[in-house]
Design brief:
By secondary structure, the chain is α+β, with helices and mostly antiparallel strands. It contains seven helices and five strands; from the N terminus they run ααββββααβααα.
Length: 169
């Protein structure tokens, strides 16, 4: 599965320099906490990935100054923010607007429709992407809401505001 990357419909912030590095560093403690909690609550997620538990996924929210590096290996779980110029080689890259990516995690958006409308850019190992999508589809409830709940009322308020802004764009 590969999208045309020559004329990306997205205006992306540069993923290098001091802003990207500082942003990645500041968000990292949150990401570490979130990935541990998701792993604790949804251990079967990893089973669905099969041999792709060790695949490196680069998730690139285009309006943020960094990307996310995910390796869903339950023995060495990684979710970290990385400036784009320091991103590791990845078996899969998934690129789109932050809220689209968040809604895809919760299966509230149609990934195929987003891909074919070029709102979502996917490159790399097709099987790994399909397995990740199927694993996320099997999760009961909302990972986004679980994550927001970890931070109490402020977390829920931020998620609500993000969702409202996404619907209005």
């Amino acid at each position: 599965m590969t999208a045309n990357t020559g004329t990306a419909p997205h205006q992306r912030l540069p993923g290098q320099g001091a802003v990207a590095r500082l942003s990645a560093m500041l968000v990292q403690p949150i990401l570490s906490r979130v990935v541990r909690r998701v792993a604790e609550r949804h251990p079967t997620l990893f089973d669905r990935l099969g041999p792709h538990q060790t695949t490196d996924f680069l998730i690139d929210p285009i309006e943020l100054p960094f990307a996310l590096h995910l390796r869903p290996d339950p023995q060495a779980l990684v979710l970290r923010a990385v400036p784009r110029d320091l991103a590791p080689a990845a078996g899969v890259t998934i690129r789109g607007r932050f809220m689209l990516l968040l809604e895809l995690i919760d299966s509230k958006e149609d990934g195929d429709a987003a891909f074919f409308s070029r709102d979502l850019e996917v490159t790399g190992d097709t099987e790994a992407v399909v397995r990740l999508r199927n694993a996320l589809d099997d999760v009961d409830g909302s990972i986004a809401e679980e994550t927001a709940d970890m931070f109490g009322a402020p977390g829920r308020a931020i998620l609500t505001r993000l969702r409202r802004s996404y619907v209005s764009t």
